[in-house]
Amino acid sequence: MRSGSPRRSYTRSIRPPGACTLHARKHGSGIGIFFLVQKCTVLLMHNNKSAYSPSIFVDEHGEEDPGLRRGRPLFLNDVRYRALELLWRHQGIPREVAQIRSTSDRVIRDNWY
Questions:
Q1: Which end of the chain has fewer CB within 10 Å, C or N?
Q2: Do 84 and 56 meet the contact criterion of CB atoms below 8 Å apart?
Q3: What is the pLDDT of residues 19-30, one digit of tens each?
Q4: Sheet with 31-36, side-by-side order of all strands
């Protein structure tokens, strides 16, 4: 005789990859840099893994405005832009994604974006 309730089979719903993931696969061999306008942040992607990177747009005091909550004008920060460009040119996106994901307390689900 079995005790307790019968076991339910757990099936995980499989979510299709997001638009950024598909774009990176098609045009960048799985590697991509995206600017998420609604969040005002940079998304780095390597295969199905992704990580947030500091925004390249800051206010007049050099501060980011995550989610555009403050409503202040933002300006392109040339230093951050050049650093991001250098990361891309030296093929450092996979390493950077792995490093951010290993040190972050919040990790983006695979294939989310």
A1: N
A2: yes
A3: 999 999 999 999
A4: 31-36, 41-46, 49-53
